[in-house]
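Priority: low. Protein: Class I SAM-dependent methyltransferase. Input follows.
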Amino acid sequence: MFSPEGPSLRELAVQALSSVERGYDLLAPKFDHTPFRTPDAVLDAVGSLLRRTGPYDAGLDLCCGTGAGVGVLAQVCRERVTGVDFSAGMLAVAQKQAAPTGPPVSWVRADARALPFASVFDLVVSFGAFGHFLPRELPGLFAQVRSVLRPGGRFAFPLVAPPRPGSPGYWTLLGFDTVMRVRNALWRPPFVMYYRAFRLGDVRRGLTEAGFRVELHALPEFGRRPDGSPRVRLVMARLPG
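Result:
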């Protein structure tokens, strides 16, 4: 799962026993060599779809990490792109890796639950960050996204279909979430990272209640499951106006 350039087992253990912010500060220099970074295939598929729905003027990558999603926004936004994350370590790596061409990019350290922006963005994206939010935090998170979008703005993110119950993937994710819950019951500060807490039904309901109109777009690059449903969808939530 990890390349030779990735973190050692000891480094992962230290990070897992830290807070989320401190853990990602420590992980940042090697983050792109871990399976936690969104694969290029997903980034490319999302970028391809967004190019068909754009162009956009200003874009925001929510919980940008080392900036992989900012690269997607740079392809579809004409005026400016912003990456926001609460890990100073992640932002430092993102700044070093930012492409020299394209629209101007700015980096802001902030918590996604309290975004320091007015309604200035046409597009907000996020990749792989929602496991760090508890289900009860999603209404507030979606309200924050709405608050930074202009009328008619869009909030887009990929969502992988959950593994079939009883499959190896199902037991892997269940085991990971169980370990994290035990860890957080016994150790402080907590490290919130749950892979099974972000469910499509809850997401659609929460976005609708926040005032979005929700569309689902299959990403055909990843095929379909045996029941015919897409393996990966792009959730596209749009504000009226």
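Residues 1-37 form one domain. The chain has a mean pLDDT of 89.
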